[in-house]
Amino acid sequence: MATHRSISERVWGWLVERAKIEPIITPTVTKRALTPMYCLGGLTFFFFVLLAVTGVMLALYYQPSPDTAYESVVEISTQVQYGWLIRGIHFYAANGMLITAILHMIRVYFTGAYKKPRELNWIVGVGLGAFTVMAGFTGYVLRWDQEALGAAGVGYGIASSIPQIGSMITYMIWGRNTVDTCGHFFASHVLLVPGLLIILMACHFWMIRRHEIAEPL
Prior knowledge:
Number of helices: 9
Oligomer: single chain
Structural class: mainly alpha
Number of strands: 0
CATH topology: Cytochrome Bc1 Complex, Chain C
Shape: globular
Distance between the termini: 49 Å
Low-confidence stretches: none
CATH superfamily: Cytochrome Bc1 Complex, Chain C
């Protein structure tokens, strides 16, 4: 006797059958992968999704201009309905993503999960870590208060000291003046860095599916 399925179950079944996505959504997960230390990568991705959702909401009210950036942040926190909550979630999710990404990399290193044949995935993971830091830095500067501007100045000094490509990086990210800086940091934070993160995450997840989770040392 056929079991009765709800409309949502039938729609989902139709989508899975037509799109052939069942091998992606029903992977084999070992018991080891369900332990807390092996869930750090998944937590990092969860925080990224949370940041994307809250970031879209914040971008609706943020004004990337030196004259209005700080005031728009204050307006989000004090006047926009639930703006303080959305900004708070965004802030703590950003810290959570950075912490879990670092812990995930430490776990991978000390369990030897970066060794053959997973060297390329380790390189991709290091890139993800670097862009996670970049996302946090560009988002911090968007507050456009004295501390943020000071951080932007320190970052400019570090970037400009890179041999050969330092001047190119500072021109691309900081621009020629404060108007360029605010606009470039906003574009980097909401488009460039998230786009690169999504591409690297797709490669990262694909290689995990191909090589599976490494056995501990």
